[in-house]
Amino acid sequence: MAEVNLLYRYPRSKRNVTARHAQQVQQRDVAMQFGREYFDGDRSQGYGGYRYDGRWIPVAETLCDHWGLKPGDRVLDIGCAKGFLVKDLQQVCPGLKVLGFDISQYALEHAEPEARGRVVRGNAAWLPFPDNSFRAAISINTIHNLERPLCVQAVREMQRVAPHGGYIQVDSYRTPDERELFLEWVLTARTHDDPDGWKALFREAGYTGDYYWTIIE
Ligand SMILES: C[S@@+](CC[C@H](N)C(=O)[O-])C[C@H]1O[C@@H](n2cnc3c(N)ncnc32)[C@H](O)[C@@H]1O
């Protein structure tokens, strides 16, 4: 038994992995500012143009049905970005009191006109709302952007303000291949895990709401 490179005749890659890695680090730094570059800059740094096109309307319908939301109910969207879901929840259920919450000054300044005045800036780890003040809280592809301890805190906060209706979606992977794709693609996730790892984090935070995964395939 010996250490032996059985791939020594395999052509050397011409790709400059170090340079690419350095570029990725730089892109991550830019993306993590959640500024113009992340939302409306180059695709390598984020969305490559985050524009309203109505794609959240069916999601809003599903969420309203899921919780039986009715006019007057208060709903919080944590990581609302430009308020697309805030706008569509109000459109699907007129009279719903939807509030968006996001750390990005840029996104909130460029929120949909229908969402303006209904979006608040802050960090998901510290929600400036009283206990049990929302019928439901939603957080889509957002809390994985926090370091693990703050991610747990964000889930706890969500549970605190909306103990009877939560929905969290986070980036995840089920196989080593999916994990590799995830690592190559995802720019901003500071906390990541497979579904079992996420479920353990949710338990640790005392979360009783619903959840699902965004998986890059
Ligand atoms: C991938 S985007 C998701 C936006 C939207 N929920 C969607 O699914 O299209 C992540 C959002 O989380 C926001 N965000 C990142 N870290 C945050 C934090 N600590 N607290 C609140 N919002 C945060 C970003 O500004 C961004 O709008």
What do you see in this structure?
The chain is α/β, with parallel strands linked by helices. The protein has eight helices and six strands; from the N terminus they run αααβαβαββαβααβ. The chain has helices at residues 17-31, 36-40, 57-67, 84-92, 105-109, 148-161, 176-185, 195-204, and strands spanning 74-78, 97-102, 119-121, 136-140, 166-172, 210-215. It has a six-stranded parallel β-sheet with strand order 3-2-1-4-5-6, sandwiched between helices. α3 packs across α4 (84-92). S-adenosylmethionine (SAM) is lined by residues 34, 79, 81, 102-104, 107, 123-124, 140-142, 145-146.
Query: How would you sum up the major sheet?
Result: 6 strands, parallel
Strand content: 5-15%
- Can you tell me the overall shape? globular
Bound molecules: S-adenosylmethionine
Short descriptors:
217 residues, binds S-adenosylmethionine, six-stranded parallel sheet, alpha/beta, 6 strands, 36% helix, disordered N terminus, globular
Outline:
With 217 residues, this protein is an alpha/beta fold. It has helices spanning 17-31, 36-40, 57-67, 84-92, 105-109, 148-161, 176-185, 195-204, and strands at residues 74-78, 97-102, 119-121, 136-140, 166-172, 210-215. Helix 3 crosses helix 4.
